[in-house]
Amino acid sequence: MVEAIFQYEFLQNAFFTGVLIGIVAPLLGVFIVVRRLSLIADALSHVTLAGIAASLLLEKKFISSFLFNPFYMGMAFSVAGSLFIEKLRSVYKHYQELAIPIILSSGIGLSVIFISMADGFNTDLFSYLFGSVSAVSRSDLWTVLFITLGVIVTIFLLYKELFLLSFDEEHAVASGIKAKTVHFIFIILVALVIAASMRIVGILLVSSLMTLPVAASIRIARGFKQTIVFSILFGELSVILGLIFAYYLDLAPGGTIVMLAVLILLLVIIWKKWRRS
Amino acid sequence: MMNEQEIVLKIENLSFRYEKENVLEDINLSVPKGSFLGLVGPNGSGKSTLLKCILGLLKPQTGTIYLFGTPISEFKDWHRIGFVSQKANSFNTGFPATVYEVVASGLTSKLGMFRFLSKKHRQAVIDAIEAVGMKPFINRNIGELSGGQQQRVFIARAIVSHPDLLILDEPTVGVDVHHVQNFYNMLDELNRHLGITLLLVTHDIGTITEKVTHVACLNKHLHFHGKAQEFAQLDSKELSQFYGHHLHVLSHDH
């Protein structure tokens, strides 16, 4: 694959996009998991699908334009979805998790309508659902790079606040942290990363890249920083090995990456059990 | 410079009601710097309400609270006040954070946005952990510790920003009975050696009166407010006046 990467631009795009996502998805995932919001990523990815379906519909029925690019359209829907989740969470104060199924089903509902209006499935849509090595363009790579840098810088700057907010929301609020603002920024980052990840792992599997490496890491890490480091390590391992396997065995990359993440998780659980006994 | 007689907390003619009936009535209280005040009272006596007023979370209908001489409505230096809530140990025990990381998070609001721990801050974190006797556990995950150890970590988090006043709400709830004495000894150290003024809220008047310098008895009204020695001299008849029929259930273990 190494020679192939030098040879084919589409492989370079896929590989580097994968490497970037392998960093940011688990990085945000750590905060999502410890705040018990694992399903938010799922809800947002389904909203992203609605955006993609809408753009495919527009492209087919009307005009294709830069603005209707499925990537950007998906991102816009994802960010809008994240705002709705926040709104719903404050409406249902005592049933905050309700926001997730509401947004998730709205996303699927919209997607199905758009897809049916656009005369059903096609290969394009399939690649969005399950990821594709060949679908990543150079401009996608630049967008993902831009998002990655933005996310890393933001997390770095807001690390203290995010940590305290995740660990002890009440104390965070009592000590004067602008919890709403910080959370709002965070959820937008999540929406952006979901949209960025869908090219490689696919809409249906995006959330797994945010949760599985963290699930493995949390079993063995000591402290929060180590949890982040291990999560990124496991995420990166799944992505790189997954892309290599997918390329040589001609598999869907999304599925391969996710199954590798599951394998790592199982190995960690077994290793931990074995060490204890 | 502060003098020894500085009044850290002063409450004047405070009354508070949630609905029609007063929960707190005509409370007058002053806490001099360096003292260790035990605020005792039975369940439902208005202790938590008074705390919330002091922390600025509730606004009393009448009366004024002064923190370091400033009326609470104008008070800005909240980092001078540390607070360990009763619910401190109800956090997610599976949270992957070390003792060091939890205590360092106590500096978040003092530092402000976009600022990072300096070498001096890191030393302050280690010192705070040492002050509560948790140094050997500094790199352990918080969830692996016992309830009493966790409570110590939360106290370290509260004192890491060097508050002048530390408020503790029922800190021994969830602490193993055998370790309560130890726990009070540690508070005593903080009070004497670090000079932190302590306000400890509890419904347990047994152990606490031996450790504190001042006692305030609350049951809607402030029934007693004075030195701990004077409190110890009260006979049980006078005590039961403050406490009513609650007295006999006070010393049972949780």
Automatic annotation (TrEMBL), chain A:
Its main location: membrane. GO terms for cellular component: ATP-binding cassette (ABC) transporter complex. Gene3D superfamilies: ABC transporter involved in vitamin B12 uptake, BtuC. The keyword Nuclease does not apply. It is found in: Cell membrane; Membrane. The chain crosses the membrane at residues 14-34, 70-86, 98-121, 141-159, 228-248, 254-271. It comes from the Bacteria. This is Zinc transport system permease protein. It comes from [Anoxybacillus] calidus.
